[in-house]
Amino acid sequence: MQLCVALDLPTKEENISLAKSISKYDVWIKVGFRSYIRDGRELLEEIKTINPDFKIFLDLKLYDIPNTMADAAEEIAHMEVDMFNVHASAGKKAMKTVMERLESFEKRPLVLAVTALTSFDYHTFKEIYGADIEEKAKAFALQSYQAGLDGVVCSVFESRMIKHETAADFLTLTPGIRPFGEPGDDQRRVADIDTAKRELVDFIVVGRPIYKAKEPAKVVEKILEAL
Ligand code: C5P
Fold it and tell me: Which of 32, 135, 166, 197 could form a disulfide with 59 if both were Cys (CB 3.0 to 4.6 A apart)?
């Protein structure tokens, strides 16, 4: 299991200083909406300068018509990014179109599909999708698998079931991790490291429990020890 540290801080300087403070650790760095919208490609390049071994997960959750998604995927594949994601609810055709577009790249980033956001509780999810989370996450995961993606973003509680329904090496990446039982913030389906391990998760994403801590590097070290 690998750790993805979310760089979701309010300024570029704070993100860079967090990345520097954890540069000796073998971790993935997750760049999402806030940081990418503000600091763009330059931030990705700077992260690689801090430690060329940092792997970058660009968390932009693409959702659009198939051709537009494939165009965006192609642009991402030209950047220094090791993994990115799309919404599975964009549909199998859109996901297939993305994967076809990436075929011509000698080395392409891993592509994951978001099934159900970890901030949804069961009621909210049903209100939006008209289905139970587990049932829909399973359907989304199967469609992503059939479309040739590398894995899905899901909650810890669906990881094992998704691997069982698809393949053991179909990756699961789970946000909503509160490593040692910290408060959940706006996340609703949260789990700790031991549960993530038990549920065969490949990547855990941790944001606030790390960057809001007094000494983020210490938290990272503690998490890596627990992994
Ligand atoms: O601070 P926290 O650990 O809750 O951060 C989780 C990170 O994972 C955030 O950057 C959030 O945007 C992202 N994420 C998520 N749920 C998803 C996909 C991404 O929480 N399904």
Answer: 32
Among the listed residues 20, 48, 61, 96, the single catalytic one is 61
Q: How many domains does the chain have?
A: 1
DSSP 177: B
pLDDT along the chain (227 residues), means of 10: 97 98 98 97 97 98 98 95 98 98 96 92 93 94 98 95 97 94 86 95 97 96 97
Q: Is the CB of 88 under 6 A from ligand 1?
A: no
Contact indicator for 174, 153 with CB cutoff of 8 Å: yes
Query: What are 166's two structure tokens?
Result: 């698809």
Residue 35 is part of a domain; what is its CATH number? 3.20.20.70
Ligand 1 neighbour 46 (Cβ under 6 A): no
Q: Is 136 a catalytic residue?
A: no
Whats the size of the chain, residue-wise? 227
Q: Domain limits at 75?
A: 2-226
